[in-house]
Amino acid sequence: MYILVIEDEPVIRKELKILLENALYQVTALEDFDSVAEQVIRKKPDLVLLDLNLPDVTGFDICTEIREQSEIPIIFLTGRTDSMDELTGMLKGGDDYITKPYQAPILLARIAAVLKRTRISETKESTVLTCHGVHLDLVHTCLEYGEKRVDLSKNELKILHYLFQHAGEIVPRLDMIEHLWENQVFIDDNTLSVNVTRIREKLKSIGVTRLIETKRGMGYRV
Questions:
Q1: Dihedrals φ, ψ of 93, to 5°?
Q2: DNA-binding region located at which positions (predicted)?
Q3: Which terminus of the chain has a smaller tally of CB atoms within 10 A, N or C?
Q4: What 3-state class would DSSP assign to 103?
């Protein structure tokens, strides 16, 4: 699991990084506090440890910006002990609020609890995947965009499911074919092209024209 630490005090930042790495987490500790929310979204951590008092911005503001784009778990870790700060943190979308000085075993336990809770939630919600506002419903085998909906064939669903799972990445054509083969659906290179063309037509029918990008000689990306 990957944890992003946002703490401007160098000694505490180093201490947290060592503690988390010793607990076998992958860790990045930010040292640049410009456009913090953008950095969080780009790095895609499994959890964020967020201090409240940062240069030129508060942790509350950063949390608000992150919540506009993502449900990444956020734990506030701060020296501010006022109960109103804790309430504000929860209302802003924080998943937990831990005050300094913290006890290492308790901090690790609270992190593990939030990660576990998040994984359970993701499992329950994983029947619907979303990319650029387009919803892929795995149970009802359809695409939804706004108020419009279109049904998918089994192959179309499998192709889109694989692309949505790798959103932002270029997925090689061979990988997609092998994925479908492993799922016991035979599909050759030409069949893949035909299915992608059909998917694009269905996307167009619900008002989506540029969801699937073709990278010539490489593969597809959403």
A1: 115, 10
A2: 126-222
A3: N
A4: coil
Residues in the chain: 222
Residue 169's CB is within 10 A of a number of other CB atoms, namely 13
Q: Are residues 50 and 96 in the same domain?
A: yes
3-state secondary structure 105-159: HHHHHHHHHHHHHHHHHHHHHCCEEEECCEEEECCCCEEEECCEEEECCHHHHHH
Which of 78, 99, 125 is a domain's end point?
Answer: 125
Q: Record the pTM.
A: 0.56
What is the DSSP code (8-state) at residue 173?
A: H
d(CA 219, CA 44): 23
Residues 6+ apart with CB under 8 A from 197: none
Better-predicted residue by pLDDT, 67 or 119:
67
CB 192 within 8 A of CB 147: no
What is the β-pairing status of strands 128-131 and 134-137?
Answer: antiparallel
What CATH number does residue 113 fall under?
A: 3.40.50.2300
Domain ranges, residue 86: 2-125
- Cα(170)–Cα(206) distance, integer angstroms: 24
Check whether 120 has a pLDDT greater than 80: no
Q: What share of the chain is helix, strand, coil (3-state, %, to 5)?
A: 45, 25, 30
